[in-house]
């Protein structure tokens, strides 16, 4: 999970949550997301088998607009979300290992708005 600064489009924080091997990871993921302020840009990417112990975070992810409750059996997902505005979420997912082996989930998102620092206007 990455937190992206809306003004500079830089990663300001990242955390890993092993929802395959750690029974407490989903609760930690849920707390991490819930601890972010509305308007925070979050990027989530699954790796290998993410669904094993994900149940405790599925409702929180769905609240972001990233419903991955149907991804099972080593499926994969990726999303970009704005906390508090699920309509802006971009989500792609492959539901099973078979489909994930054929195609990786891809998300493309554009952050728009006025930059707070005029010197950053040159960033592309």
Describe this structure in words.
The chain has helices at residues 25-34, 55-64, 97-102; strands at residues 2-4, 11-14, 41-45, 76-82, 90-94. It is of the alpha+beta class. The chain has one domain (2-122). A five-stranded antiparallel β-sheet has the order 2-1-3-4-5.
How would you sum up the global shape?
A: globular
- Output the helix-strand order: EEHEHEEH
Biggest sheet: strand arrangement: 2-1-3-4-5
Question: What is the number of beta strands?
Answer: 5
Alpha plus pi helix count: 3
Essential attributes:
alpha+beta; 3 helices; 5 strands
How would the blueprint of this fold be written?
Elements (H helix, E strand, L loop, with lengths): L1 E3 L6 E4 L10 H10 L6 E5 L9 H10 L11 E7 L7 E5 L2 H6 L22
Antiparallel strand pairs: 1-2, 1-3, 3-4, 4-5
Provide a compact summary of the structure.
By secondary structure, this protein is α+β, with helices and mostly antiparallel strands. It is built from three helices and five strands.
């Amino acid at each position: 999970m990455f937190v992206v600064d809306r003004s500079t489009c830089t990663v300001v924080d990242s955390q890993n949550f092993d929802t395959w091997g750690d029974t407490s990871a989903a609760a930690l993921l849920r707390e991490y997301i819930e601890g972010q302020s509305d308007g925070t840009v979050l990027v989530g990417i699954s790796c290998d088998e993410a669904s094993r112990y994900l149940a405790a975070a599925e409702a929180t992810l769905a609240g972001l607009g990233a419903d991955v409750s149907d991804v099972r059996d080593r499926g994969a997902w990726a999303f970009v979300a704005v906390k508090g505005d699920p309509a802006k979420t971009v989500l792609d997912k492959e539901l099973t290992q078979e489909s994930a082996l054929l195609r990786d989930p891809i998300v493309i998102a554009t952050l728009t708005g006025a930059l707070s620092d005029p010197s950053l206007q040159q960033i592309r």
